[in-house]
What we know:
GO terms for molecular function: propionate-CoA ligase activity. This protein is α/β, with parallel strands linked by helices.
Amino acid sequence: xxxxxxxxxxxxxxxxxxxxxxxxxxxxxxTWFKEPQRVLDQDQHGHAQWFPDGxxxxxxxxxxxxxxxxxxxxxxLIWDSPVTANKERxxxxxxxxxxxxxxxxxxxxxxxxxxxxxxxxxxxPEAVISMLACARLGAVHCVVFGGFAxxxxxxxxxxxxxxxVLTASCGIEVDRxxxxxxxxxxxxxxxxxxVRHCVVVQRPQHQAELYAGRDLDxxxxxxxxxxxxxxxxxxxxxxxxxxTSGTTGKPKGVVRDHGGHAVAMxxxxxxxxxxxxxxxxxxxxxxxxxxxxxxxxYAPLLAGCTSILYEGKPVRTPDAGAFxxxxxxxxxxxxxxxxxxxRAIRKEDPQAEQLTKYDLSSLERIYLAGxxxxxxxxxxxxxxxxxxxxxHWWQTETGWAIAANPAGYGLKPIxxxxxxxxxxxxxxxxxxxxxxxxxxxxxxxxxxQLPLPPGCLSGIWGNPERFAAGYLQQFPGHYQSGDAGYxxxxxxxxxxxxxxxxxxxxxxxxxxxxxxxVLGSHPAVAxxxxxxVPDSLKGELPLGLVVLRNGSNIAEEQLCAELRERIRxxxxxxxxxxxxxxxxxxxxxxxGKILRRTLRQMASGQDWSxxxxxxxxxxxxxxxxxxxx
Length: 629
Ligand code: COA
Ligand code: AMP
């Protein structure tokens, strides 16, 4: 159904004053199996539950409903894989067929509505097909980014209690084969929860060893499967779990529902990005991250667009023109990427000579997220592209943009350094540490007044207490984003950085607490701190500060190499842990808390002062020397 287009101010006001009326109108865009009569309710934990009595199926809406609307022949998904020299266009009809068959395969393996399925795959069509097949059955997918090590995979298998793992024989990192199956085997050996079956896509680049009984060859298992129909589920039924870094070593499973998510995804495609059915939308991310879930898979398909699945890097596959080549080849209208990707391109091609080789006439704008869009990158893109380059801010937890410059309402003037204005549905408030609102221009904790809009997390998998404790308790009536920033007089939001120990490495969110656990397990380490330090390419890089156990005389270089290897084995290469410094002491408060903020300020060359709570100020001189060396 078509929904009348309003202007930004009208929608923003309506969504704030009467969220029920605003979201009821947005929900009319979907073809529900059973239209919701109630718009907003509370679940048993008192958290917002959107469209509680509606029923639908997100995969059906993304595929069957598009075919029924006459888009069967249109390309739904383009797979572009420079690392394997492959390209494939998959129409909506064909994608529906392949998803239904994959759902049939899962059903024959005993997967039922509500069961959890782990997907650990590189950027191949089977990853998208697997996600949609789970959704079709009402099963809950849990995609794990391919760069994570076996231990991370095992933790997710256990937490989700997943019975099935879908994987591939390998991923390809530029020109290096990363064998996935040994990592899966190690994870299955470590996990306490037994996995019944592991289905493996055997890629021509590398054959995985399969263990009879447990492991199945994807093509063989699929060949015998009968297509499965979409299962009608309640709007509140979980669609997926996506694990993200928290401040502890244990990642948290963000849960998203079918109903609110579908409404929000569709709304965002029109309102935030200004997309229409048939447009080509490219989110240059990975299905293992929230950007991939929302904007490679669900939102573009729900909106009848063509989405691109790119198995490559911004550089080296084969050169710094890769992004421009893809945009030109498929007439991409909107490109969404992380700033770090453009820093990598700029480093290799500072004059943007590659860009001039391609016809980019279809490209209307670029949206960036995942980390702060630093002004030099914005300026470079702006100068060379001569198109709107737009920063927008969101999190795994929200699933779609909290603040943006919304093309669907007509772009507002762009203010470099700002992530734009709050999207209708989000009530952004800046609060001081005591929970009092601060004036425009003053920095504080960025919070969202409850209720959160549809599409945001409905909880943390199996851990409602962690949802409440981590996000809702510090500022009653608000969701605490974990970011600090300010709103200016015109309502533009500026996001300045995290208030907790999460760092952002090449657009990847990582927990320093988890890295500290790994470093702390080394026999020579008495105690340690990991902080993020600025990096011109990746935004931030982790740095370890280590105090040795009495009697240990390991050399710094040797320790550094061993710690690097431990982090790679335990968390994964994506952590980019390179450097550790041995120090005499770490600065602590009198209650024994490490003063990480002071360490971060020292390491990034910012002004810092001796904290009044410090126990032993004498240790700061040594640290400053080491950190500035
Ligand atoms: N599977 C296995 N290994 C992976 C992997 C995957 N899916 N993704 C990354 N890795 C490995 C890399 O091979 C690399 O290993 P190495 O240390 O042995 O070389 C390591 O993890 C670090 O990867 P990365 O940070 O990607 O570094 P890079 O030098 O290969 O590439 C960039 C640098 C900037 C080009 C790249 O980080 C990039 O494209 N970033 C954009 C990220 C993004 O889109 N984020 C989405 C959030 S919106
Ligand atoms: P993730 O959950 O991996 O998407 O990471 C979310 C975090 O990345 C946010 O809480 C911010 O700290 C950071 N982030 C994402 N987008 C932006 C942005 N546009 N500006 C500043 N920080 C951002």
